[in-house]
Amino acid sequence: MALISAFTPVFVAVLCGIIAFFFFRTSWRSESSSGQNPPRTSGESSRPWVDEDLQDDTEISGKDNEDDDWTVSETENLPHVPYSPPRYSEEEMMERSQQFFTLLNQRRSVRFISPEPVPRDIIHNVIRAAGTAPSGAHTEPWTFVVVGDSETKHRIREIVEEEEEINYKQRMGDKWVNDLRRLRTNWVKEYLDTAPYLILVFKQTYGVLPDGKKKTHYYNEISVSISCGLLLAALQNVGLVTVTTTPLNCGPQLRLLLRRPANEKLLMLLPVGYPSPDATVPDLTRKQLDDLMVFV
User: Which residue has the higher pLDDT, 37 or 208?
Assistant: First the structure.
């Protein structure tokens, strides 16, 4: 009995250590699964090289965020109406499909954009076209911020170039920078000043109803990405050019500059206008049909 009593404090200490280990391990796993990053060490950058705004973080009301004020989904059925889109003959279909492919095949990423003014109504129409995209549960989780003010455009350029220089020199790594070298891209974005319009596409990670409750936006990043594809096609259709840019780590600053709410995150920035008279593009080729399609 004396021997057991002597080892009792040691046994209790070891047992407490084992319990603490499993507690902290479970707690860390819980934080990781909820999307939180583990604490950074002092040697790590204060910002990630992969933009956290580009993660698809659809908010789902339920156990993980039951403390938030989420709205209850409507259960009433929407009325359905007749739908009769145009139907073309096979000859017309072939001709239209070929014409549309030819139009989009001429699309290029253009970094030399003229300051020549573009009628605002044209921009309105191409954004209306982008707004026809399908979305998860028809939540339409997109906001298109059109910037035409020269001072605001210049401030956007300053923010983007400051972060992009860090991206190129520190965050992106040699492989990424080398892959971009043949395209002659760098952190200098003159087109952000010269383009008559900048279109900043924000994804709404959740909706906010008039009563303040949150509304789940399912597949918000995929939905907004589809709308961006339609926007590119609409711009090509009217003879305007752009270059798709995803300025890493600029989202919070640009969101603050443009006074966007916390539920919106920057997905894409598009300078839009006519090509400058001396515009050039890399001499690239696209994959052939056999390389991009598998028919089963």
Answer: 208
